[in-house]
Each structure stands twice: as structure tokens, then as C-alpha cells.
Amino acid sequence: MESKVSRRLSEGTAPEVCEHVYAPRLARDFPAVFAHLCDVNQAHLLMLRRAGLLPAADGAVLAAALLRIEEEGFANVPLDPAIEDAYFNYEAHLMRVAGAHVGGCLHVARSRNDILSTMDRMRARLQVLDLLDAGREACAAALANAQRYADVVMPGYTHLQPAQPITYGYWLLGVAESLARDLERFQQAQAVLARCPLGAGALAGTSFGILPQESARLLGFESCVPNALDAVASRDYALALMSSFAIAAVGASRVAQDFYTWCTHEFGLVDFPDSVAGTSSIMPQKKNPIVLESLKGKAGQLTGLLAGALTTVKGVNFTHTGDGNRETMRGFFEAADETLRIFKLLALVLRTATPNEAAMLERARNDFCTATDLADALVRESGLSFREAHHVVGAVVRTAMDAKLAAHEITSAMVDEACVQQIGRAVGLGDETVRRSLDPALTTAERRQGGAPAPDLVRARVQELQQHLARVQDDVQTQRSGLAAARETLKSEVRALAAAAR
Predict the structure, then answer these.
(1) Is pTM beyond 0.85 here?
(2) Each residue of 302-342: pLDDT tens digit?
(3) Domain span including residue 228
(4) Is residue 363 one of the residues assigned to a domain?
(5) Which one of 30, 344, 360, 464 is separated from 213 by 20 to 30 angstroms, measured CA to CA?
(6) What residues does the Fumarate lyase N-terminal domain cover (predicted)?
(7) Are 176 and 146 in contact (CB under 8 A)?
(8) Has 159 been annotated as catalytic?
(9) 207 tagged catalytic
(10) In this predicted model, what pLDDT tens digit does every residue of 57-111 receive, in sequence order?
(11) Can you say whether the dihedral through the CA atoms of 7, 9, 14, 18 is positive or negative?
């Protein structure tokens, strides 16, 4: 049996190749790329007509056939793994609809390589827009509750030990800052995605007098890729985006880990509604944080997909290859889908988590996280070096712990006793100064430098980031409108060309 796609090949495709390479790829990819393949074919047709590379009559027949295939949908295209991939199966169907000669004319001045590269960018740019929307919603959820809970005092932790008092709103603002950087990384990739590879051919362009900028315009691209080899060889934008996906996933995992800790009975700082919890098949008292576990687990998936893509492409020649472009992009599209799920789940978590305000404040009052503020007071009012103050307060904390006293029960007499032990003299720090230094609500409000958690500073920064998110939203809407307008122009021009066939 001869090959169904090439007279160079004297044998048909082996059943194992059909079963394990082409059939799975067709089943996975054809529904996903069908609309893009229709658009690419229609844009190429219009370009060929404008360049004078296709007779008017043939162009009209092709336009009518392409519109018919698009209207009937991908389910009406017979798929044969022996014909290899999505493009060859589409072309075979086009040749049945338009006739073998006319249908075969559409492939002039192009290759599957630049077609695939173009479709990959078209799919990727839509997914980036979806991710910008989803990431913006997660960031907005963090900001809304940062505004709401800017005054809710809680302990801040380092090494999972009480460190300094902050507010829950301040913590959420930090999460929002991280999410805003995720969005910036996605936006950086859009400059590459705005360049169209169509016209690059297999790797060396073409001798036909094509109009690549016209194809780019019809497909909603801003410009063309300047080097044909690079156009088909490189998917580095996918690697950059997968890195951004993995970073975003790791960030979400760390947020989930904080919530995971705080919602335990032992911490009791945060609670979630039953709608985002699971239960046990045997233990009736259980309320399990399944969404948080899912967020943490997905970070492992995303880092694995990134590592797999980088490893796959590292030994690939700088040209078009199946492993470099198909297997890598398979991981990319899966990673994009998973990242979208991560943002959706993270928005849910950030929106529904409820802080236990009383427990947070009580923990901050009792767990010595105000010790640094007491040391700062000794520096400011008693002239101690910070290291001297650090030793004094460390001794005070040790004494209080031994006596089973909470932080807010420390007195000026205890401070003076520690001063005598550590520096050989009392300093007479007043009771009111000690009290204020150990009040987490007061010390949090007084910390105003270096991105500090004072509630008014938190709210001011929330407003700045909300304005930034509004600009991101406007930009996404502008891009969506531009792509929709370009596509409507494409369809209108193809319909006009097809009308000549009637």
C-alpha cells in the first residue's frame, strides 16, 4: 500500500505509527485547532488572490468550500491517521469538497511548518487573554478583602514562628502584589505572540510574490516574524510562558499552604465555608481543605510540565521538528489549562476565606511578636544600641515565658531587671511606653516605612493596584475587540469572494 500523502514514500504508514502517533494527536488536536485552521486557510486564500497567485474562479470555489467546511464543523471532517495530522486531513476533505485540483492549489507558497507555528500563536494568544482575565479576578479578590480586613491584626510568621504583628489585609495585599507580577509576566509574552509566522514556509520563505503582512492583518497580528527559520524553529514564547505558569502556580501553592496551616484546629485563624471543603468516608467530624490541597498539587504538575518541555527541546536542532514543536506545545497547552484552573480556584479561596479576628488579635497579643517593637523603643528612648536592646528584650521574653506570662503582661520593672543583667544598669522605660510597644494594633499602625502594614497605607496601595487591574482589563478588552474585528473582516471578505462562485 502506498503512502496517502507522499509519492516519495512507497509504503503506507505502519499501523503502530497510526495508533500511537497520529490517531492520539488527531483526537486531541483537531477539535482544538479546527477554527484556527479555517481562519488560516481563509486568510491565505485571500492573500493569494490579492497577490495574483490564484485565478479568480478557483478562488471563488475555494472560498465557498472553506466556508462550507467551517459551517459543517470539525465533526463532519473524516479523520484518517494514515493521512497523518490535522492539516493533511483538512486538506484531503477540502479536495473532496472543492475538487482535487482546486483544493490542492491552496497550499501554494506555504508549509505545514508555518501553518502550525501560526496556529500555535493564535491559540496561545487567546489563552493568555483568558489567563489575564482569570489572574486579574484572583488579584481583585485579594484586593477586595485586603481593603476589608486592613485593620485585622494578626501575627506575621517567619520559619512558621511568630515574627512581627501585621494585618490580614496586609498579608492579602502581599498576595495581590505577587499576582500582579504574574500578570506582568503574561503581558511580556504578548509582544512575541503579536507577530505572524505565516509566509515562512518550511524554513526559508518562498519565491512566490506573497503578501505576508496581508495574512497577518486578516488574522489579527500586528506584524510578521522577520526570520523564516526562527518563525518555524522557535517556540520560546511557550517556554517563557510555561515558566510564568509555574511561577504563578508556586505562588498560589504558597498562599494555599498558609491557609492550610491557619485553618487547622491548632491555629484556628481562618475558616472556609462548607462549599469549598470535603469530608471523610469514615470520620464524620472531618472538614477537609480539598481546594487548598488541589492548589498545592497543581504546582507540582506545572513545574513538571515546564521541566519536560525544556528537556524535550534542549537537544533539538534549530529548525522545525516534531519533538521540539509538537511535544513541547502539547505540554504548553496543558499547562495553560491548569494555570487557568489554578487562578479560578485561588480566586474562590481568597474570596471565601474568613479570618477569625478575635483569635488573630489574641495570638498577636500573647505570642511575643511585638518583641522587636519593645527593642525599638529601647533604642529610641533609652539610647541603647539595637544589639544591646535585642539582648535585653530576649532576656525579658525568656523571663516571661518561664513565668507563663503573655507578651502584653510584661512590665517596665521586668525590662529594667533585664537591663541590669545585660548592660549593668536600669533605663527606666515608662510603663506606658512598654504597654504601647507591646500592643500589636498600635505598633502595626505606627509602622509606616518600607512597605509597612499601617492600615491606611494598605488601603492606599489597594487603590493603586485596583487602578492597575482596571488598565489590564481595558487592555484585554481592546485586544479581544481587535481580534474579533479582524476575524469579522476575514469572514466578510471570504463571503464576498465565495459569492462570485454562485
Answers:
(1) yes
(2) 999 999 999 999 989 999 988 888 888 989 999 999 999 99
(3) 113-358
(4) no
(5) 30
(6) 54-304
(7) yes
(8) yes
(9) no
(10) 999 999 999 999 999 999 999 988 888 889 989 999 999 999 999 999 999 999 9
(11) negative
